[in-house]
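ok, trying the design again with the full structure, not the truncated one.
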């Protein structure tokens, strides 16, 4: 074991309960992670001790709340190695962040004859905003074809990304295939062609060290709730010159510099993108989550989550009638699978009856489901509080599910 998941688990109160008469095994962290005491207590302290609006009051609580909110921005900038905190815009999560870029940036650079390049494995959050942007601007969507195992072939990326490409957008870690994509290489291909690259970091940020300066991506998005933080907070990272070029997508209080009856001007980045009362408690909670992840150590988390994915892959691939999607190698934090002749919703229901929580459905990746020639799958996803024993429980419950359905089907 690379880190003491058993000790870490003690810090997650929600994990210590019985579900349907069995100790809970939570294997759905790709949907949302659980929250450690450090985050829960920080949120409680915020509301009990210094809840106040930010950037407005001169009173002491207002100053404390502003310091905590802007402190969270600084922590997040350091966490992902951005050049400066001004390059971090707080958003509701990855979905909002991608929509901002697709709405604001894409409309300034795309027109007829231009292309936006994606992959078929993208989450709907990194797909539909671009469909909308393409419709609004006359640009065309293009897709980098996947290899048979679902991985990206860089030679194909070289062919699809051309001088006509304006934006390339793809996930760092696939929420279905579990693979870590070669984003650094793809960003470099985009740049050689004069395009900008957006990396969907919803799944990567919780599980590995990410580095904006090293990746050199133009935009990066993340969701706090998948990395031990609260729901409702996430971020858009953007290079300063691009954020400065972008128009805000929401207008109102807090984001303005000067307002007349018929005109208004905006604040500097990042505040011009944060109209209204921002997500103060969310940012405070995210800041505590970052401290927690730093304390555990991102390198150890990465090793641990890769180890669990490899262990689960081996255990499940040893079971007759189980199909696993995505390659064996280069996998982190999750395994997506199906049991022959059984709908994944039924699999998940039977597992739940034994206290094992997995996700079943299309995982917001309908085009990828069609590419895999399935309508849905089950998915077990892991995090720093999971152990090999949790995976053993999954396999044992799955074995019983298999027996149950083989009798039921006859
Ligand atoms: N991108 C990927 C790869 C995801 O897995 C998810 C959520 O599951 C999202 C984007 C959307 O994140 P959110 O719902 O936090 O905005």
């Amino acid at each position: 074991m690379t880190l003491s998941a058993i000790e870490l688990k003690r810090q997650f109160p929600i994990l210590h309960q019985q579900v349907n008469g069995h100790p809970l095994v939570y294997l759905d962290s790709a949907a949302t992670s659980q929250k450690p005491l450090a985050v829960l207590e920080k949120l409680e302290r915020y509301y009990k001790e210094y809840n106040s609006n930010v950037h407005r009051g001169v009173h002491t609580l207002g100053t404390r709340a502003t310091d905590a909110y802007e402190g969270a921005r600084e922590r997040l900038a350091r966490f992902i190695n951005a050049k400066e905190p001004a390059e971090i815009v707080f958003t509701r999560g990855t979905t909002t962040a991608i929509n901002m870029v697709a709405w604001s940036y894409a409309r300034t650079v795309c027109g007829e004859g231009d292309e936006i390049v994606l992959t078929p494995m993208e989450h709907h959050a990194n797909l539909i905003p671009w469909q909308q942007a393409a419709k609004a601007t006359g640009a065309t969507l293009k897709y980098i074809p996947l290899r048979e195992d679902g991985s990206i072939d860089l030679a194909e990326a070289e062919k699809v990304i051309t001088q006509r490409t304006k934006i390339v957008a793809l996930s760092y870690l696939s929420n279905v295939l579990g693979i870590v994509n070669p984003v650094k290489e793809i960003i470099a291909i985009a740049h050689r062609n004069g395009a900008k690259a957006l990396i969907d970091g919803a799944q990567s940020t919780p599980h590995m060290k990410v580095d904006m300066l090293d990746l050199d991506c133009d935009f990066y998005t993340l969701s706090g709730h998948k990395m031990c933080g609260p729901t409702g907070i996430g971020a858009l990272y953007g290079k300063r010159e691009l954020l400065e070029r972008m128009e805000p997508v929401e207008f109102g209080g807090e984001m303005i510099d000067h307002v007349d009856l018929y005109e208004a001007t905006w604040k500097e980045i990042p505040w011009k993108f944060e109209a209204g009362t921002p997500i103060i408690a969310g940012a405070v909670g995210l800041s505590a989550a970052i401290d927690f992840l730093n304390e555990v150590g991102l390198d150890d988390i990465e090793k641990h989550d890769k180890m669990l994915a490899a262990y689960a892959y081996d255990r499940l691939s040893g079971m007759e009638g189980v199909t696993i999607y995505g390659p064996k190698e280069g996998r982190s934090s999750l395994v997506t699978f199906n049991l022959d002749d059984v709908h994944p919703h039924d699999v998940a229901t039977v597992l739940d009856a034994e206290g094992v929580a997995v996700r079943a459905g299309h995982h917001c990746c309908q085009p990828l489901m069609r590419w895999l020639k399935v309508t849905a799958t089950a998915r077990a996803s892991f995090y720093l509080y999971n152990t090999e024993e949790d995976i053993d429980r999954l396999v044992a419950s799955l074995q019983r599910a298999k027996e149950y359905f083989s009798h039921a089907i006859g």
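Keeping the full-length input from now on. The chain has 15 helices and 17 strands.
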